[in-house]
Amino acid sequence: MAEKLVPITRLGKFFGGEDYALDIGMGEEWLIGDMNFTVILYRIDRYKTKTDDVYGEVLEDGIQFMAPVELKGYVQVMAPSNKFLGNSRVEQQEPGNMRFSIYQKTLEDLGVDIFMGDYFGYYESEDRVRYYVVNDDGYVKSDNKHTYGGYKPFYRTIVATYVSENEFNGI
Amino acid sequence: MLVKMNSTEYNMPLPKQVIPTLPLVPKKTLSERREQLLEFIKKDGTYLPKSVLHADLDRGMLDFVKGDLQVVTAGKIVPMIDIILTTQNWSQYVESATFVNLDYNVEPPFVTVVRQPEVKYGTNPSLQYTIPNRKQFYYASVPTWSGNEQGMDIYTIPQPVPVDINYSVKIVCNRMRELNQLNKIVLQKFSSRQAYTFIKGQYVPIIMNNISDESQMALEARKYYVQSYDFTMLGYLIDEEEFQVKPAIARVAQVVEVDTSLLRKRRKKYPENPSEFLSNFLYVSGITTLSEIIEFTADMTWIGSENISNFDVFINGDYFGSNVNKIQITTNDLLTITVTKNDNTQEGVIKFDSKLV
Asked: With the CA atoms of B73, B77, B82 and B85 taken in that order, what torsion angle do they form, in degrees rounded to the nearest 10?
């Protein structure tokens, strides 16, 4: 049975589907054509990944990935901070989180989705890649900021935290 | 005047647990029950108990909540998150769970188990600080057999390490009746303060500590009930890496057959080295030819046959004669006698008197 579709008619006096598509297209031209921030998305295959039956944690070498995908979006990396590890006296400078914003249309065109636990790889320089794990996949995008003034959700903001190389180091 | 009564007032209590038959096999008690418990521990394994470690205890708690604290309301089972929530697994779980909504959020009602990460030295009184230094204790003597050597192996294990693990069983729901149902089940189950879960053949006690309410009732937020039941599992760790198997006694079986009859046989007064003696050739059923290397030089005189009509004699493969009365044989000759029996299904005998020359 076909999915029931309801046309969006709000803001109809001065804004509609064509305007929306035009603005998204211009935005993509700026974001992808001019800015061209690129991250590599490593999606975890949740169904093939082997986990134990008590904690649901991945077994040794049991994690399975889908094919990596190159994504274009807006990357913001927060400032690093000095922290103790827990209550220990081990002090270290931790890299800041990455905020990655991407058009929903880009994801739909590529046919991919991003979930908590997936990994990003981001080349800081030609020879230095840093990996991040998604801890907020921005799946709920109903707020005004993400809905183009209340018209329709059009982008997602994903927050990812850096991971050490012994957790993930590319595939 | 008609009084309209609530329909629930007409509900009559009916017994739900009707047991139509009497149990034919009585439950085991005392030492038999102890042996049965020991069988549970050894089941599907060696003579030793299986390891019981943290993950086994956690799995036991999950099984206990899933089985013994199952909540059913309006004919539906309230789903339970069947893993201990850790830092890693949540996103994976919600993607494969069956009770999530369009935003990939878990939809109430559901029950979840939270384990306090720290596991402290246990308060189980039967195990506390009684045996120092991980001393090994006798557990079982197990017979061994290598094919020709019988022995025993002594299995020893150290005292299990007691551990206390604190769990919170939380129900998240939107209806009071779901809270009531779980509360009823928990209070019934823990009416004697403790209940037991069954982990690898061993009963591990769980005690209930506290019941608290964490419901979200803020005015400008989603409202839902959360109630938390705090339990402590009085578990113990058994690590098979600490088991020891040592050889004990071993012995070689030597079987000696002794004639125990009281009558002594009279010794035959033959001369020690006779120069004349009987040489019998026994043809068992189906055999008609016998060969033998003769280790002496003698004249062999035929003295009789049984079940044999005639016989042919060959010496060193050369035909010597048929039905001969005397055979002259020399040391290391190969004597072959082929017979014709009267009845081939029976044994036959040819007797010769050998006289050394």
From this structure: -30
d(CA B356, CA A152): 126
Tokens representing residue B149 in the block: 């050597």
- B90 interaction partners in chain A (CB closer than 8 Å): 116
Closest alpha carbon within chain A to B101:
A140
Is the separation of the CB atoms in B122 and B128 below 8 Å?
A: yes
Q: What interface predicted TM-score (ipTM) does this complex get? A: 0.73
Judge if the upstream peptide bond of residue B109 is cis by omega within 30 degrees of 0. Answer: yes
Listed in order, the ranges of chain B carrying CATH 2.60.120 are 276-356
| 3 state SS of B55 | helix
Q: Where in chain B is the domain with CATH 3.30.2000?
A: 29-248
* DSSP letter string, B10-27: GPPP-------S--SSPP
Cα A114 from Cα A42, distance rounded (Å): 9
The answer to whether the CB of B227 falls within 8 A of the CB of B177 is no
**Structure confidence by residue, pLDDT tens digits, B164-194:** 999 999 999 988 999 999 999 999 999 998 9
- Categorise residue B354: left if φ over 0, alpha if ψ from -120 to 50, beta otherwise: beta
Beta-carbon contacts of B250 under 8 Å, excluding residues fewer than 6 positions away, are B144, B149, B150, B151, B152
- Interface with A, mutate which of B89, B103, B165, B222 (most A CBs under 10 A): B89
pLDDT in tens, B223-255: 899 999 999 999 999 998 999 988 887 776 677
> Which residue has tokens 């905020």?
A99
**Cβ pair B280, B348 in contact under 8 A:** no
For the whole prediction, is pTM greater than 0.95? no
Measure the CA–CA gap between B350 and B354, rounded to whole angstroms.
Answer: 12
Strands across the sheet containing A119-125? A69-72, A38-42, A119-125, A128-136, A155-162, A98-103, A74-77
Q: Per CATH, which fold does B29-248 belong to?
A: STM4215-like (3.30.2000)
**Using CA atoms, how far apart are residues A71 and A111, in angstroms rounded to an integer?**
11
Strands (E), B128-260: 136-145, 149-158, 161-173, 194-199, 202-213, 225-237, 244-252
Residues in chain A: 171
**pLDDT tens for each residue of A135-160:** 999 999 999 899 988 899 999 999 99
Work out the minimum CA distance from A75 to partner chain B, whole angstroms.
Answer: 23
Residue B202's beta-bridge partner residues?
B199
Asked if B92's CB is within 8 angstroms of A44's CB, the reply is yes
Name the fold adopted by B276-356: Jelly Rolls (2.60.120)
Among the partner residues A47, A53, A55, nearest to B96 by beta-carbon distance:
A47
Pairing of strands B298-306, B326-329: antiparallel
- The residue with tokens 């390490």 is B161
* Predicted confidence band of residue B31 (pLDDT cuts 50, 70, 90): very high
Residue B168 structure tokens: 């919170």
> Do residues B169 and B134 touch, judged by C-beta distance below 8 A?
no
